[in-house]
């Protein structure tokens, strides 16, 4: 029997993320949050001097809200407005539904349509649903058409899928100003090292297999094989914190590894009659495999192509299975190719069209040895790396926009 959905601090952080990462001045709108609700608390903490936040409250709770906000001080009360109905609220840049939608797809759709009217053109609506409600065709269709990304928050009771919907495109220039998206899939281990949730799953699966093997054959040492593999498997998915160059002219690497080639090519998949500067980087099995955006931009396309599984360091790897993320930037189109290798068999891409990617932002990963190619307009950028050099994803400046 499904339990009533609740929102913990981690899920609240994801729901409010679009409001947090927007540099302002901006407007926010929250519905479904009682006094002290984690979503409301996170949004109040994110307020900047020129921001405005509106809260749709139950009339019976208005006095409690006023008390809660007054406790935060005049700085907050000057920037927060309470209304008792959606009709009294003005459209906002970021609209947040604080409580997860229950298990009826019609309720999810109704809430999305209602709050769409209260979301500015190019703005974002954040809406959550429990996993048991998330797989319906109606929700899947709505998210596929308007979603810019969805995050699974397992550390919540119950686990939630949180969707970001953008019904109209936002200006590309906004990408130059937003902060990277908060990714719950990147789990902190220390102040400088995270691990992707895939690593936790891989380590847990191997330890589980070791336990089952030990139970099935208690006198055998075979259980030690999966147990010994658990740490290396998890370590493969390490996700270190990176400091990205904030120089607007700098273009950073999308992945860790060795530069395979720097060349000018023609490729009509990302734009007609455009010559590209392509920088290809080989990621060995020992490298960090989390991929980061080399530039800030608005995602205009994400597509996959079938192909082979040639060794990623070979020239023929250009025709391997790949996923392409195409960005519109203030300097022109940019594309990133995530390519499989001899061992790699799965590409994870966590972004969608209409999403905004900040420079250096995590957007996916490739399991095991692979290759990452960055395509830049050849007449607008100059390469700063050469074949054989090592680069660090999100940090090494691999090219620079021309003035």
What does this structure look like?
The chain is an alpha+beta fold and 403 residues long. The chain has 10 helices and 24 strands. The strands form 5 sheets. The chain has an 8-stranded antiparallel β-sheet with strand order 19-15-16-17-21-13-12-23, with no helix packed on it. A 7-stranded mixed β-sheet has the order 3-2-1-4-5-7-6, sandwiched between helices. Helix 1 (9-15) crosses helix 3.
Task: Sum up the structure in keywords.
alpha+beta, about 400 residues
What is the topology?
Layout lengths: L8 H7 L1 H5 L5 E5 L6 H9 L5 E5 L5 H11 L1 H4 L2 E4 L8 E6 L7 H12 L2 E12 H4 L2 H10 E7 L6 E6 L20 E3 L4 E4 H20 L7 H13 L1 E3 L9 E3 L4 E10 L8 E9 L6 E3 L4 E9 L16 E8 L2 E9 L6 E3 L6 E2 L4 E5 L3 E8 L3 E3 L6 E2 L5 E5 L2
Parallel strand pairs: 1-2, 1-4, 2-3, 4-5
Antiparallel strand pairs: 5-7, 6-7, 8-9, 9-10, 11-24, 12-13, 12-23, 13-21, 14-20, 15-16, 15-19, 16-17, 17-21, 18-20, 22-24
């Amino acid at each position: 029997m499904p339990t009533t959905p609740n929102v913990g601090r981690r899920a609240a952080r994801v729901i409010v993320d679009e409001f947090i990462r927007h540099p302002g001045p901006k407007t926010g709108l929250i519905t479904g949050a009682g006094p002290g609700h984690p979503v409301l608390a996170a949004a109040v903490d994110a307020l900047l001097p020129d921001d405005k936040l509106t809260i749709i409250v139950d009339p019976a709770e208005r006095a409690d809200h006023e008390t809660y906000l007054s406790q935060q001080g005049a700085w907050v009360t000057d920037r927060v407005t309470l209304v008792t109905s959606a009709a009294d609220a003005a459209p906002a840049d970021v609209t947040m539904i604080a409580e997860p939608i229950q298990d009826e797809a019609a309720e999810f759709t109704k809430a999305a349509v209602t709050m769409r009217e209260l979301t500015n053109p190019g703005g974002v609506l954040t809406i959550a649903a429990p996993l048991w409600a998330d797989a319906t065709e109606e929700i899947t269709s709505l998210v596929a058409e308007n979603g810019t990304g969805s995050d699974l928050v397992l550390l919540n009771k119950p686990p939630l899928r949180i969707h970001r919907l953008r019904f109209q495109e936002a200006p590309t220039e906004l990408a130059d100003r937003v902060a990277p998206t908060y990714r719950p899939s990147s789990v902190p281990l220390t102040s400088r090292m995270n691990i992707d949730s895939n690593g936790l799953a891989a380590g847990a699966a191997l330890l589980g297999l070791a336990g089952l093997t030990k139970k099935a054959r208690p006198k055998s040492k075979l259980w030690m094989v999966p147990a010994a593999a658990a740490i290396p498997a998890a370590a493969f998915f390490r996700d270190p914190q990176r400091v990205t160059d904030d120089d607007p002219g700098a273009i950073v690497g999308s992945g860790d590894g060795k530069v395979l080639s720097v060349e000018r090519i023609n490729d009509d998949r990302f734009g007609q009659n455009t010559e590209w500067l392509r920088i290809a980087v080989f990621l060995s099995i020992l490298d960090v495999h989390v991929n980061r955006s080399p530039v800030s931009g608005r995602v205009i396309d994400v597509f996959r192509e079938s192909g082979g599984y040639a060794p990623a360091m070979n020239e023929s790897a250009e025709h391997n299975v790949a996923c392409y993320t195409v960005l519109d930037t203030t300097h022109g189109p940019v594309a990133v190719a995530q390519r499989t290798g001899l061992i790699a068999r799965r590409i994870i891409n966590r972004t969608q069209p209409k999403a905004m990617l900040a420079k250096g932002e995590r957007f996916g990963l490739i399991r095991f040895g692979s290759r990452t190619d960055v395509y830049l307009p050849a007449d607008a950028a100059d390469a700063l790396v050469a074949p054989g050099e090592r680069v660090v994803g999100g940090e090494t400046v691999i090219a620079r926009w021309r003035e």
